[in-house]
Amino acid sequence: MPDALSMTQVLDDLKARGFTANIGVVDEQLRVLDSGKILQPEEIVVREVHRFEGVSDPDEMSVAYAIESHDGIRGVLVDAFGVYADPAVGQLLKNVAQERPNRPRRGRALRV
Q1: Beta strand 21-26 with 62-69: parallel, antiparallel or unpaired?
Q2: Which of 32, 33, 70, 98 is least enclosed by beta carbons within 10 angstroms?
Q3: For residue 11, what is the DSSP state?
């Protein structure tokens, strides 16, 4: 998908490509929210990172991580970035492999 204009478009595209699990940080652990399964950092890879920068509204600043586990779970973790980012998400993702390094650009969703 080329650079998307909205988070909804990116999330719909990821879902269509099999990233269907909702992933979140609960009690300082990455979890599949539907099943409660805990994902260890060494068992997952961040396949894509999509960052959204709100041009006129700081509340629109967010990032979506497409995550895949070694046992086939594919899902999305969404967080804010900047001052609203959840520090627990950043701490957990520090130990997770990324498919490619981030190359942020401004003003649109990113697929890196």
Answers
A1: unpaired
A2: 70
A3: H
Question: For residue 20, what are the domain limits?
Answer: 7-98
The reply to whether 1 falls in a domain is: no
Is 45 part of a structural domain of the chain? yes
Give the three-state DSSP class for 64. Answer: strand
Q: What percent of the chain has pLDDT over 90?
A: 45
The DSSP element (H or E) to which 67 belongs, if any, is strand 62-69
Domain assignment of residue 105, yes or no: no
Q: In terms of Cα–Cα distance, which of 47, 65, 89 is closest to 7?
A: 65
Reported confidence tier of residue 1, pLDDT bands at 50, 70, 90:
very low
Number of domains in the chain: 1
63: Cβ contacts below 8 Å, ≥ 6 apart: 49, 50, 51, 52, 78, 79, 80, 81
Secondary structure of residue 83 in the 3-state scheme: helix
Structure tokens given for 66:
């497409």
pLDDT in tens, 64-81: 999 999 999 999 999 987
Task: Say if 2 falls within a structural domain.
Answer: no
Tokens 């909804």 correspond to 8
